[in-house]
């Protein structure tokens, strides 16, 4: 049998704050394949995440195929709008949330985070600060992570991120500059694949996932409508699961995908292939 084997590899999944999103599903898929998994959590959500873990509120979701609970080697505070500790304001840097952050060898880094403070606003009504905040947190953060984690990557390392097809098509309601941020993320993936590939021999890919009603996605305000529309019009009408995105990402980060880099892989039930809505009347 040809299996994904990540035994002995160390992964960091940035953007895990609960058990309901793609980040958690990716972390679990990597662990199922044998990787040791660390996660990065947005500092304001860190204590909530830790409390949920300690109280066993996520135990059901953490059960793996062997019956054990998904283990996290480390849970780091990670804020996508800062590049170095020196960039962090004093009152934030001195917070105990940022203790125990060090440099350790890595094999896999997953960028599973995004934020657009004005995501509910049409692009034409988005402020400059809102637009730049979306691009900073959702796109530039990948550049920062590749730049800083690249030197820590062992041979055969891989980066992966999550994007969305609003980068290339109009999705009314997905505003605040997030469509621009996703377009930048995909463009940067190609350039980073070249630069990081030549510099450190690592791969960089992105997964374009279909809409999924996670807690984070609820900020968009129309996520249920987006999910229903894709289900009605995609070649495969069953709704996307987080697990499907998780295992696809694990594949991209595995030796089985050693020849794949600079690529956007669609995991959206084939919706990206459609050029016309299905008639339902």
Describe the 3D structure.
- Helix content is about 35%, strand content about 15%.
- With about 280 residues, it is of the alpha/beta class.
- A seven-stranded parallel beta sheet has the order 3-2-1-4-5-6-7, with helices on both faces.
- Helix 1 packs across helix 8 and helix 5 packs parallel to helix 6.
- The longest helix has 23 residues.
SSE topology sketch:
Layout: E1 10-14, H1 22-32, E2 36-41, H2 43-54, H3 59-62, E3 75-77, H4 90-93, E4 106-111, H5 128-149, E5 153-163, H6 178-200, E6 203-209, H7 223-233, H8 242-252, E7 264-267
Helix pairs in contact: 1-8, 5-6
Using only C-alpha atoms, the radius of gyration works out to: 18 Å
Q: Let me know the number of strands.
A: 7
**Which outline best applies?**
globular
- Helix proportion of residues, in percent? 25-40%
What's the total helix number? 8
The end-to-end span amounts to 46 Å
Q: How confident is the prediction overall: mean pLDDT?
A: 92
Estimate what percentage of residues fall within beta strands: 5-15%
Largest sheet: 7 strands, parallel
- Side-by-side strand order of the widest sheet: 3-2-1-4-5-6-7
What's the helix-strand series?
EHEHHEHEHEHEHHE
Structural class based on helices, strands and sheet pairing: alpha/beta
Low-confidence stretches: none
